[in-house]
Design goal:
- Its EC number is 2.4.2.2.
- Residues 345-419 form the Pyrimidine nucleoside phosphorylase C-terminal domain.
- One of its GO terms (molecular function) is thymidine phosphorylase activity.
- This is Pyrimidine-nucleoside phosphorylase.
- By secondary structure, the protein is α/β, with parallel strands linked by helices.
- The protein folds into three domains: 3-63, Up-down Bundle (Transferase, Pyrimidine Nucleoside Phosphorylase, Chain A, domain 3), CATH 1.20.970; 78-314, 3-Layer(aba) Sandwich (Pyrimidine Nucleoside Phosphorylase, Chain A, domain 2); 330-419, Aldehyde Oxidoreductase, domain 3, CATH 3.90.1170.30.
- It has helices at 3-11, 18-29, 35-48, 52-63, 91-100, 120-124, 136-146, 159-170, 177-188, 211-227, 249-260, 266-282, 291-300, 303-314, 325-328, 351-363, 402-414; strands spanning 78-83, 105-110, 148-152, 195-202, 231-238, 246-247, 334-339, 344-349, 377-380, 387-388, 393-399, 416-419, 429-432.
- The protein has a six-stranded mixed sheet, sandwiched between helices. Strands 6-9-11-7 form a four-stranded antiparallel sheet. A three-stranded antiparallel sheet has the order 10-8-12.
- α10 (211-227) links the parallel β4 and β5 (231-238).
- The protein starts with a helix and ends with a strand.
- The model has no long low-confidence stretch (mean pLDDT 94).
């Protein structure tokens, strides 16, 4: 069949067969299908969507276009996690050590931040000496030895997805749920884990702004994973305000450490417990009744914190980071408080706006080439539902340029909205699937 006929079929709302999708995708990767034809097919998908069978075929074809990491030689159940991205999302730094100290193997490839969302790799690289560039053999040996390894994504995984995503980015076809699901799962399935937990964010600071779309995306990814022979679960969590209090790379590492010590913010602690429990259930080391007690025990006993230190040391960081993080994580040079100008209740915090403030301070990237400043960011003191009095601190800016801090003060203040009447805090976990 001609590429033209494959595009026409999808444009007319019909299903493409696996062989048709394979001809299109492999031809595009090899340079035999031009950008304009792939862009036309993507736009047809944007309006007509992919069926579950088409989604699964596209995912599998992209998965097989690059390198796969076989974890079968590692004893035990291998578990992976993916977040669709948000502001202040340091969950991986917490749940990884938790589930590894419960007997699961947490072997994960993570990405860098771009735009208003942070990246796990950037957070870890704020730790002096920590390396995220692990050869596959070292990645597997470390996961086998200590139960946890985390590295940056390689260019060789899901090569077709990387090329197609770059085209989606410039043709206004990114925001289509079946394409998003296939893109994410092609990379997740390239790592030979036995199970996957998906943390799908919804709200102002998330990619999926409303619950309906977030749920549809979660269900699509679960379906793809199960068709690929994996145990998959999802948690739909709130991103209408930053998660926890810290936003910024080394600031989030500190908050992750404090959460593992049992001193974390309530919303972050709850989400990490729920995600950890679901991972234990998917991994078959706990059931609905026992999972909460097992997670609580490894945190309360210090086992999860000790696993965090072991993980950091194994990848080149200091062995005593959790006990002496102030020694290793230098603070920003300019720290300014943002004060409330009225009495009332915090009724909203624009999570995306906070993330963009942090990006402009240097905690994130406008382009992939931008250099990260690990020390800068924002500390959110007051959250939705909190009572505030005039003159109380709402947030703290951490920057290394007084000029930038002064420019962002007013912008940060505008991310807060207020009410004269009491406001209920948002529910952190919307649904468990």
């Amino acid at each position: 069949m001609r590429i033209y006929d494959i595009i026409l079929k999808k444009r007319n709302g019909l299903e493409n067969s696996r062989s048709e999708i394979e001809e299109l995708v492999t031809g595009y990767v090899k340079g035999l299908v031009p950008d304009y034809q792939m862009a036309a097919w993507l736009m047809a998908v944007y309006f007509n969507h992919l069926s579950p069978e088409e989604r699964s075929s596209l995912t599998d074809i992209m998965l097989n276009s690059g390198e796969k990491i076989d974890l079968s030689s590692i004893e035990g159940t291998k578990i992976d996690k993916h977040s669709t991205g948000g502001v202040g999302d340091k969950v991986t730094l917490i749940v990884g050590p938790v589930v590894a100290s419960c007997g699961l193997v947490f072997a994960k490839l993570s990405g860098r931040g771009l735009g208003h969302t942070g990246g796990t790799i950037d957070k870890l690289e704020s730790i002096p000496g920590f390396t995220t560039s692990l050869e596959v053999d070292r990645f597997k040996k470390q996961a086998s030895k200590i139960g946890i390894a985390l590295a940056g994504q390689t260019a060789e995984v899901a090569v077709a997805d990387k090329k197609i995503y770059a085209l989606r980015d410039v043709t206004a076809t990114v925001e289509e749920i079946s394409l998003i699901a296939s893109s994410i799962m092609s990379k997740k399935l390239a790592i030979g884990s036995d199970g996957i937990l998906l943390d799908v964010k919804t709200g102002k600071g998330a990619f999926m702004k409303n619950f309906k779309d977030a749920r549809e995306l979660a269900l699509a990814m679960i379906d793809i994973g199960k068709r690929g022979g994996k145990k998959v679960g999802a948690v739909i969590s709130d991103m209408d305000q930053p998660l926890g209090r810290m936003v910024g790379n080394s600031l989030e590492v500190i908050e992750a450490i404090e959460t593992l010590k049992g001193n974390g913010p309530a919303d972050l602690e709850l989400l990490c417990r729920v995600i950890s429990e679901r991972m234990l259930i998917i991994g078959g080391v706990a059931d609905e009744n026992s999972a909460p007690d097992i997670v609580k025990d490894v945190i309360d006993s210090g086992k999860a914190l000790a696993k965090f230190d072991e993980f950091v040391a194994a990848q080149g960081g200091p062995i005593d980071l959790s006990a002496n993080y102030r020694k290793y994580l230098s603070p920003a040079g300019v720290i300014e408080e943002i004060k409330a100008e009225r009495d009332g209740f915090v009724s909203g915090i624009d999570a995306e706006g906070v993330g963009l403030v942090c990006m402009r301070l240097g905690a994130g990237r406008k382009t992939k080439e931008d250099v990260i400043d690990p020390a800068v960011g924002v500390e959110v003191i007051k959250k939705i539902g909190d009572r505030v009095a005039r003159g109380e601190t709402l947030a703290v800016i951490h920057g290394n340029s007084r000029e930038l801090v002064e420019l962002e003060r007013k912008v940060l203040m505008e991310t807060f909205s207020f009410s004269t009447s009491e406001v209920l805090p948002p529910q952190i976990v919307h649904e468990v699937l």
